[in-house]
Design brief:
The protein is mainly alpha-helical and about 450 residues long. It is built from 16 helices and 6 strands. The termini are far apart.
């Protein structure tokens, strides 16, 4: 397939890992996203005489039509048209959310293409920064519009979605599909991620405990804000150490290898050139930014029109839609008894949100003059703490079965009263024997009780 784009060694790129023997192991995120890719039929494209036109058509074929989610791409121009001609704002929100779904998967594909030419280190850094580009861009636009509650809810929902929904569903489905086999996974990667998640919880709890231990007032708010910013710097430093650990000293913990039977739809050679991949990556990031602006600007209208609270949309819908492709891949590989990939996706994304996106949002808000802190309130922080604790206990023995997934996956539930808003997934029960039942915690805005 690479022969069609072999113009000057694929646009003068240096193929550092085009062969299967020397190419380093792909990360769990790459492998997970690849489950939704498909081979492109370039028979007609190869007959085009003009090289530039052939190159353009090849790029369109590989980038736009090379995913099973390509049917959702028409939602992008429809969202732009709906915004330009002032159609119903809930329609703009819905179309923008649908358009973000294939874009997130394509960003993973493009970063993997760039890795062929730059090597695993630069590719790993791209994954570390672009892996959750959707959440990061939505958070920045929400900060720009001073919607701090939307930022906190969406980031909290992303972590909880990965830890409870994605991980729980993967363990449950994988256990049902492999009832007669004991599912095992490497605990090393899980231990690293859970330790970082616990550190993130500690950094969230410090401002919360400080606020509750002091008298409320402007002085206390300023001190909480300063403590949050200091904690964010510590979290970013820990994340940098984690990236160095992941890409340099202990890369073998995080590299995932697929069997040959799982490589049917994934080429071990680049299908587009370096410059094309970089240009597509920049262009798709710009489109993600545009759709994210639409999402943030119309979320209140969609909430009012659909009868759902902004908190429900931010915590439940945004995280699920933003990473639908990656999450679907994690569940697919759980069916194939490849839990290392599923854990790498769920825990890796949760760690990236908790230790990179959240503190970076606080720092960016500081630069923008917005007073965002790490105090996510008692109920939200408590739910996050129990979710991390549940995950750590569930993964401590290196084996899995469907009951663990059933205890971790939250049910789909919605509060009946519109004045109630869903805050997060909580847990109750005896954690040590994995008999924890997850449930939504609904908070009454008027009465302030669960």
């Amino acid at each position: 397939m690479a022969s069609l784009t072999d113009y000057g060694h694929l646009e003068c790129g240096n193929l550092k890992g085009s062969s299967k023997e020397i190419r380093p192991g792909r990360t769990a995120h790459n492998v997970s996203s690849s489950s939704l890719r498909k081979k492109s039929d370039l028979t007609l494209v190869s007959k085009v005489r003009f090289a530039l036109l052939r190159q353009l058509l090849t790029n369109l074929q590989e980038v736009v039509l090379g995913t099973k989610l390509s049917v959702l791409f028409p939602a992008i121009p429809l969202a732009i048209v709906a915004q330009m001609f002032n159609f119903g704002r809930p329609w703009v929100f819905a179309l923008s959310m649908l358009g973000l779904t294939p874009l997130a998967e394509r960003v993973s594909f493009l970063t993997e293409q760039i890795t062929f030419f730059t090597g695993p280190t630069v590719g790993g850094l791209l994954n570390a920064t672009c892996g959750n580009a959707t959440e990061l861009i939505i958070a920045f636009f929400a900060l720009y519009q001073r919607k701090i509650a939307v930022v906190k809810c969406s980031l909290l929902g992303s972590v909880l979605s990965n830890l409870l929904l994605v991980l729980g569903t993967s363990l449950f489905c994988g256990g049902l599909a492999n009832l007669k086999r004991e599912q095992k996974y490497d605990r090393k990667q899980a231990d690293v991620n859970t330790s970082l998640l616990i550190l993130g919880i500690l950094c969230h709890m410090l401002p919360l405990m400080f606020r509750h231990s002091m008298n409320s007032g402007p002085a206390t708010s300023n001190q909480v804000l300063e403590l949050s910013r200091a904690s964010s710097i510590v979290m970013l430093l820990a994340y940098i150490a984690y990236i160095f650990f992941q890409l340099k000293t202990h890369r073998q913990f995080f590299e995932e290898q697929e069997d040959d039977k799982d490589n049917d739809d994934v080429s071990e050679e680049p299908v587009i050139g370096f410059h094309s991949a970089f240009a597509w990556l920049v262009g798709m990031t710009a489109v993600i930014a545009l759709l994210s602006e639409f999402v943030v600007g119309t979320i209140e209208d969609a909430s009012e029109s659909w009868g759902l609270s902004v908190s429900f949309i931010s915590i439940i819908l945004l995280p699920i839609v933003g990473n639908a492709a990656e999450h679907a891949g994690a569940i697919i590989f759980a069916f194939k008894n490849k839990l290392d990939i599923s854990l790498g996706v769920a825990l890796g994304s949760a760690t990236q949100i908790s230790m990179f996106v959240v503190p970076l949002s606080v720092i960016v808000a500081w630069i923008m003059g917005v007073n965002m802190n790490l105090d996510f309130n008692l109920l939200e922080t408590g739910s996050l703490f129990v979710a991390v604790l549940l995950t750590a206990f569930t993964l401590q023995d290196g084996t899995s079965h469907y009951l663990k997934g059933l205890n971790s996956a939250p049910p789909t539930h919605k509060c009946s009263e519109q004045k109630r808003r869903i805050i997060s997934w909580g847990c109750h029960g005896d954690i040590t024997d994995s008999s924890v039942a997850s449930t939504f915690i609904c908070w009454d805005i008027d009465d302030h009780h669960t």
